[in-house]
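Entry 14. Ran structure prediction on the chain below.
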Amino acid sequence: MQRQKLVINGERLKNELERFSYFGRTENNGVTRLALSDEDRRARDFFRTCCEELGLTVKVDDMGCMYATLEGVENKPPIVLGSHLDSVKKGGRFDGVLGVLAGLEVVRTLVENKIKPQIPVTIVNFTNEEGARFEPSMMASGVLSGKFDKNVMLQKTDRDGVTFGEALKEIGYEGEVENRLKEASAFLELHIEQGPILEAEELSIGVVDCVVGMACFDIEITGESDHAGTTPMKMRKDALFAANNLINEIRKRLGSLDEDLVFTIGRVNVYPSIHTVIPNKVVFSLEARHKDPEIVSTFKEFAQSLPYLGVNEGCEVNVTKLWERDTVWFAPELVNQLEESARSLGYSSKRMPSGAGHDAQFIANYVPSAMLFVPSKNGKSHCEEELTTWEECEKGVNVLLDTVLALLSKC
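Output, structure tokens:
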């Protein structure tokens, strides 16, 4: 088919994003729409209605993922667009939902221009990407890609003891295993950046070439508890002082390893946490992320060396690896096309990695996949202050539309 140059209806996209923000809206203009909650059910129901009004066929799989398909001339593996509708507690109005509504707007544009695609175009809403109610995150895409065991995931519970399987039945979105996404010509996910880079560099589009690899460790330091007022400093085995020494070494050494390495100590627990008692145990987490596997490997070696740095104040240091993931590289032909579409539309862009995880990283294991980012104001995400301008949202969806048209022209 001959490629057509179209743009989306930006006002319509804005209105839809506003409408969906009311499903779980918080007092400060954020969203709480936990997976499989009533708010999630209402958003799903409305999404289904929007799709069926366009004449799309909507199916649901056994993990609750929704697939809305515009029929193609040929019954071949579809181009798939989408993300997720669930949010974290007191999250933002754009995370996840922008990717789903981007797919909806692309399909609407095709329909209103009477373009019947050569192959089907499907919009997907993946279940429980956030993992805010049921851990782990990216649960459904993890099951689809074989990363997670379905039976184990169905038994995951929320804080009230409700299982994922029970909640799925309760909201009426337990579908059939045969409806799963099994193959596709391409999967494209538009997402807010959730970071400050695009805004800082005054760029409109991030063309994501990979999701970075990472590793996470628990560092446990064991000392001795004694009275805070009677034990001389030179006779102490203070686990917190030892932890402080280690953290200083971590920041110094990792900070000089590579400028693109990001590392975080996000959790620290001190025991017995009594102001008159010398701490006898400290446990803290240490994670780092980088796209180069050699840098990640160097980080892992350093983490394992922490017990031997000689700064432990006489305490015992143990290191336990919690988990790790390899860098996931997206399909070069799709990354190139997204970049070309941004260029052809006159939008400023750059190639960049994703430091955060997304459904696309799992789907990329069996479907050619790629991602687009649009800027996040002040880098904010997973909070009520999350904001991407309507203009930047529109640009992102226009790149998505142009890429879909380019892919269809090659069918």
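The chain has two domains: 10-211+327-409, 213-325. Will compare against last week's run tomorrow.
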